[in-house]
From TrEMBL:
InterPro entries: CheY-like_superfamily, HATPase_C_sf, HATPase_dom, His_kinase_dom, HisK_dim/P_dom, HisK_dim/P_sf, Sig_transdc_His_kin-like_C, Sig_transdc_resp-reg_receiver. Residues 189-408 form the Histidine kinase domain. Keywords: Kinase, Membrane, Phosphoprotein, Transferase, Transmembrane, Transmembrane helix. This is histidine kinase. The lineage of its organism: Bacteria, Pseudomonadati, Pseudomonadota, Gammaproteobacteria, Vibrionales.
Length: 675
């Protein structure tokens, strides 16, 4: 692990306690000048040094109100403050006070405090060595002292206490990390076991829909209702898998993951949540109403916000048997806040329990509940810079109020700035003024910026950027480089901004499969960079309908250890005219490749005997499979983190599809590679 990552981890670990330490340091340093100078006089004191050290702790107190530029250096400031305020200051004062007993005790206390603040053995050792060395240098180097009180036994005792403290604290932290790792593994295992039946069920429904469509002339009157139910179930399954992915991402980040936050419509998300909720009967749907005066956007995650609405509705439906039960979701947009109120006419909550319902593991009136739903909802809304609260009247109603800030509010802009430091922007074009503006403002806005020539296609890092800007004026109609660039972009989900200033560039044909927006740069030149940066956080909702793939009996090798998923997907492909070869693992896949010629390979990542990565390595490098060296390989997996996606590219896989995939997604990927 790099030094930068270690420092950031140490800061995140102790960040919740920063304000307390900030108050203690900023007040304690100057205050103890009067203690040691007047109450219990010591040989040496330095009021200005104490003021300097105390000032270093003030940003800890003001951590939620600091300017945006300071946030980039907050972890470094934390380490520097601890180094100067503890080992340096106390070693310097110890020596200057001629190793007096009060200062030996103070020095020992400072060492133990620094060990408590920083668990990383390497970081604490480094700052202790640096701080004590500087303390000795400034005291002995500039103020020669002939101490009669010094004894080498002090060094032995201090060293033993120091090493023991580091070892003990480090061991406790390792135990904590082991528990956290177990929790992650356990969650990942549950999620994996849930995805397999979800994926199988999803594929079977796709097959049923396909059969219904092809025999539409002979359907009975209830077929339309059956298709509607199937589609509704598919939506619920798809949303459940998205929620699992995001929850696991949040667990891995030790907090709510904010990297994918964008602007979304409040009304659209709530209405889609209500429509896709897993009702036990059609009558339950009629118990929920949504009212709003107008719509606006919030900044956050669509998946997590749906999770919050789902959770509030699920809790309310627990008491649906109460007479005159209903759920009303009221959305009120005013000049200051976006207010969402979810009110149910259930049994209510006692007043003495209201303050505790957002506490971990607290439950009220429900059996077999973990008590983690509402606490997680609060974490989600807090991550959106919002507030959630609860009011209730026992026996009559319960109402949850969610306040979400405006997308241009100070708190949201601050959050956007924090996220901008992780954003990566790529500019493709030959407009020097655009490049100059984006490069000049990359530091103040926080994003990482790179540019490439419009006539260079080699090693363009498409998979390592969050947004790509393409200057259409750099290309001419039927341009070879533009055509190749479009082919590459069609395989990605990365946001693409097409900029144009001249009418002739609009004659270029844009691939509908690209996730793009077309922008007239003449309209934004006055505030170019600010307008561009807004698109980092705007949801591109321009999905196109993918036409059915036409094929001359192309062969597809389908490799997956999930038999039911493989069967349903195989039947779906066969009904569309493909010849499908089945294999349950990489070993059988390689045997099939020696016997048959295939046009495309769809392969799971984790399988017994031989997984997808090792199988791909064999296909790309082993001469026995020379005829398939360039055959497209699509990874068909339930989840892939960033490292796994990079590994896919390194071994030679051409792309990936997440399970469960819609029929349109499957055929869209097949069409890209097979045609």
């Amino acid at each position: 692990m790099s030094i930068k990552n270690r420092i950031n981890n140490v800061y995140r670990y102790f960040e919740p306690n920063l304000i307390i330490i900030g108050y203690l340091g900023s007040i304690g340093f100057p205050l103890y000048f009067f203690v040691w100078h007047y109450l219990f006089p010591q040989p040496y004191e330095n009021f200005f040094l104490r003021l300097f050290c105390g000032a270093l702790f003030i940003p800890f107190v003001l951590k939620d109100h600091l300017p945006y530029w300071f946030l980039r250096y907050k972890a470094i400031h934390f380490i520097a403050t601890i180094t100067i305020g503890l080992p340096f200051f106390f070693s310097y004062m110890l020596i200057m006070n001629d190793w007096s007993i009060p200062w030996i005790m103070s020095f020992m206390a400072a060492l133990f405090l620094s060990i408590l603040l920083i668990y990383d053995a390497y970081i604490i050792s480094a700052i202790s060595i640096i701080g004590i060395t500087l303390g000795a240098f400034f005291s002995y180097g500039f103020h020669p002292i002939n101490s009669e009180n010094f004894h080498w036994g002090y060094i032995a005792v201090i060293s033993f206490s120091y090493v023991t403290g580091i070892a003990s604290h480090y061991r406790n932290h390792i135990h904590y990390e082991d528990q956290l790792l177990f929790a992650r593994s356990f969650s990942a295992g549950i999620a994996h076991e849930m995805r397999n039946p979800f994926s199988s069920l999803y594929s079977s429904m796709e097959l049923m829909l396909d059969i219904l469509r092809q025999k539409s002339d002979n359907k009975e009157s209830n077929v339309n209702e059956l298709e509607s139910i199937i589609r509704s179930n598919m939506t619920v399954i798809n949303n459940s898998n998205e929620t699992i992915n995001l929850l696991l991402s949040s667990i891995n980040e030790h907090a709510i993951s904010k990297n994918t936050f964008q602007e979304y419509s409040i009304v659209n998300i709530i209405k889609s949540s209500v429509e896709s909720f897993g009702y036990q009967s059609s009558k339950d749907r009629n118990l929920v109403s949504v009212n709003f005066n107008k719509d606006t956007n919030y900044f956050g995650s669509d998946i997590l916000f749906r999770y919050v609405i789902f959770n509030l509705m699920k809790n309310a439906f627990y008491y649906k048997e109460k007479s005159n039960f209903n759920i009303n979701i009221n959305i009120e947009i005013n000049t200051n806040n976006n207010i969402i109120k979810v009110r149910d006419t259930g049994i209510g909550i006692p007043k003495n329990n209201i303050d505790a319902i957002f506490d971990d593991f607290f439950t009220h009136g429900k059996k077999n509940s973990s008590g983690l739903g509402l606490p997680f909802c609060k974490k989600v809304i807090t991550a959106f810079c919002g507030v959630i609260s609860c009011q209730s009247k026992l026996g009559e109603w319960t109402e949850f109020t969610i306040l979400l800030p405006k997308v241009d509010s100070k708190s949201v802009n601050k959050l956007k700035y924090e996220l901008m430091s992780k954003k990566r922007l790529l500019y493709i074009g030959d407009n020097n003024s655009d490049v100059f503006e984006l490069q000049k403002n990359s530091f103040s806005h926080g994003y990482n910026f790179n540019t490439v020539s419009p006539f260079k296609l080699i090693e363009i890092p498409f998979d390592q950027v969050d947004m790509i800007i393409i200057n259409l004026d750099s290309y001419s109609e039927h341009d070879y480089y533009f055509s190749k660039l479009q082919d590459k972009l069609a395989l990605l989900t990365t946001k693409v901004l097409y900029l144009h200033r001249t009418p002739k560039s609009l004659n270029l044909i844009l691939n509908e499969k690209i996730n793009y927006k077309l922008i007239n740069a003449n309209n934004i030149d006055n505030n170019f960079t600010d307008h561009i940066c807004r698109f980092f956080f705007i949801h591109f909702n321009n999905q196109k309908n993918t036409p059915r793939s036409t094929t001359d009996t192309k062969s597809i090798l389908l490799v997956d250890d999930n038999m039911s998923l493989r069967m349903y997907t195989g039947i779906l492909l066969q009904r569309s005219g493909f010849h499908v070869i089945h294999a349950e693992n990489g070993v059988n896949a390689l045997k099939n490749l020696e016997l048959s010629q295939v046009d495309l390979i769809m392969m799971d990542l984790e399988m017994p005997l031989m997984g997808g990565l090792e199988t791909t390595k064999q296909i790309r490098s082993n001469k026995r499979y020379e005829s398939h060296k360039n055959t497209p390989i699509i990874c068909f997996s339930a989840s892939l983190d960033e490292k796994q996606q990079q590994d896919l590219s390194k071994v030679g896989m051409n792309g990936f599809i997440f399970k469960p995939a819609t029929k349109e997604q499957i055929f869209s990927s097949i069409e890209r590679f097979i045609n």
